[in-house]
Amino acid sequence: MTWHVSEADLRAYARAELAAPMLWSADTHLASCAECRAVLAEVSEPVDLGWERLDAELDAPRPGLFERLLVRLGAADHTARLLAATPVLRRSWLASVVFLLVATVFAVHSSGSPTLFLALAPLLPLAGVAASYGPALDPTYEMAVVSPVHGFRLLMIRTVAVLTAGLVLNGLATLALPSYGLRALAWLLPALALTATALALTPRFGPVLAPALVGGAWAALIAIADAMADGGSLAPFTAAGQGAAATVAALAAGLLYLVRDRFDVFLRSAA
Amino acid sequence: MTSTVSASGLSLHYGGTRALDEVSLRLTPGVTGLIGPNGAGKTTLLRVLATAVPPQRGEFTVLGHDPGSLRGRQEVRRRLGYLPQTPGFHPDFTAFEFVDYVAILKELNQRSARHGEVRRVLDEVGLGEVRGRKIKKLSGGMRQRVALAAALVGDPGFLVLDEPTVGLDPEQRMRFRELIAQAGEGRTVLLSTHQTEDVAMLCHRVLVMAGGRIHFDGTPAELAAQAAGRVWSSAERAPHAKAGWRTGTGTFRNVGDPPPGAELLEPTLEDGYLLTLDGYGMAVTA
After folding, report:
1. Which of A237, A252, B45, B74 is the most exposed place for a label (fewest CB within 10 A)?
2. Membrane-spanning residues where (chain A) (predicted)?
3. What are the structural domain ranges in chain A?
4. Domain segments of chain B: what residues?
5. What does the pLDDT look like over B19-28, one tens digit per residue?
């Protein structure tokens, strides 16, 4: 016998956690090596416990399509399950967003102006993030708050996933407006600014009122800019407007970080 | 006996409402019942002790940790099981997936160990056979057991149950009581309930709460004894009784100060509860 399975691998083997191809090598080797079998017996947990774990593993229901997709994309299985529990990452929500974007793109093509799309696109990620955390739409909110996972961490995991999904969908819609070039991407910085501002204000105003106020402020800003426009781009979509959006996004992100511990207890509207 | 939970002067106001008013208590292993009328502050007290809502005044420790600090709060939550008044579920999850989700929230990230724990708690509440069934297809009693299983993940030292028997039929309620009694062996359970039968059958100690304050703290027998000599039977409803109702035999059972020569009855836990709450606008008439 020229080699032996390392003790670490034998421990993993005993826990049914040794991955292929090392698992295949260990299987073959153990069949013919009494020395390794003896070490395996020493490092193994009691047989019943080992069987129970193996049984539980074999018995675990197969995760859904969305979770399997996330795992394939490299997410840890526990992160995938946390995301699968995010209310807005459901087909019905995503389908509504897609429908809205498609309708808006058609409206832009018929009106000949991208303003409607640019005004609407920042609101979709804002609404998605607002609906992904808090008592209004997360049925397990109360259980999540009293869990040892910090509320801000859970919020960030969900926010990143929802923002990514929302921005990708917005981005795909942007591709359907090639004639406007980079102008069609002017929704991106306002989207980040609105989302970060709403999250930063959530501990003060609650998870429903804060995004509603921010969304309302955005709608008012667009209406005012539209009334003051003289045929060119609306102010939020000019270079100066984009700079202002980037500044607001950065300031709101800083404020959000400062108030992060407020997400670890019941939010205002839930208490 | 060493206290699992020790609280002193807990106060919390919502606007002008005193949800908690200088509440002090000590909880020891076993099942402690918390009863009181709607709006008494029971759910607020449970949420404070479960670290979901910080008190505006007062301090408390759970299992030796102070939830006032971030680290202390995390330590408490690692040893806490919580079943809220209306537990929410992701309806598309199976029972296994839901409890697995809660186990992840409790930081059990190692997959095979976590799955073993999920299976253990589902077996413990008698749902091992339906663990692969979607929650939306389970009965109300089964859903409540799923929520209890989720609360039991990680073998918590302090279990907080907010009205877990509401909405269950008598058979489900009895089954659930068995599970709570089992859960109370070796750990501290705080059980909020409207059912005095729950307290009589399960609790070694009972707290009566109203108006944000605790008005009684003792054993169920001591609570029943509050009504000793103040429960009597009569052919007609006694006009000065605090509470009175016609029983199945056609006679009236009255609670309050009896008239001379009245036929006294053995007081129950409910009689003691009603008299303890006297003055809080809760009279039962029939």
Report:
1. B74
2. 92-110, 116-134, 155-178, 184-201, 208-225, 237-259
3. 7-60, 81-270
4. 5-219, 224-276
5. 999 999 999 9
Which structure tokens are listed for A211? 């995004």
| B157-171 confidence digits (pLDDT tens) | 999 999 998 878 888
The more confidently predicted of residues A16 and B228 is B228
d(C-alpha B198, C-alpha B200), whole Å: 6
In chain B, which residue's Cα lies nearest the Cα of A64?
A: B93
Give the alpha-carbon dihedral of A102, A106, A109, A115, to 10 degrees. -70
Measured from the Cβ of residue A148, the count of other Cβ atoms closer than 10 Å reads: 17
Which class does domain B5-219 fall in?
Answer: alpha beta
Min Cα separation A106/chain B (Å): 34
Mutation for testing the A interface, residue in B101, B117, B134, B135 having most A CBs under 10 Å: B101
CA distance A133 to A155: 6
The confidence score (pLDDT) of residue A270 equals: 46
- Residue B191 exposed, middle or buried by CB count within 10 Å (0-12, 13-18, 19+): buried
Kindly write down the DSSP assignment for every residue of chain A, as one continuous string: ------HHHHHHHHTT-PPTTHHHHHHHHHHH-HHHHHHHHHHSPPHHHHHHHHHHHHHSPPPPHHHHHHHHTT--HHHHHHHHT-TTSSHHHHHHHHHHHHHHHHHHHHHT-SHHHHHHTTHHHHHHHHTTSSTTT-TTHHHHHTSSS-HHHHHHHHHHHHHHHHHHHHHHHHHT-GGGGGGGGTTHHHHHHHHHHHHHHHHHH-TTHHHHHHHHHHHHHHHHHHHH--SS--GGGSHHHHHHHHHHHHHHHHHHHHTGGGGGS--GGG-
Span A47-83, pLDDT tens digits:
555 555 556 555 666 777 778 888 888 888 888 888 8
Neighbours of A137 (CB within 10 A): 16
Which residues of chain B lie closer than 8 angstroms to A17, CB-CB? Answer: 112
Among chain A residues, CA nearest to B104: A78
φ and ψ at residue A94, rounded to 5 degrees: -60, -40
Residue B237 has pLDDT above 90, yes or no: no
Report the half-sphere exposure of A191 (CA within 13 A, side-chain side): 27
Following DSSP, what letter does each residue of A68-91 receive, concatenated?
HHHHHTT--HHHHHHHHT-TTSSH
- Are B12 and B48 in contact, with CB atoms under 8 Å apart? yes
Which of A147, A260, A261 should one mutate to test binding to chain B, selecting the residue with the greatest count of B CBs within 10 A? A147
Helix or strand (DSSP H, E) at B9: strand B5-14
- Looking at residue A141, its amino acid is Y
- Asked if B96 and B56 touch (Cβ cutoff 8 Å), the reply is no
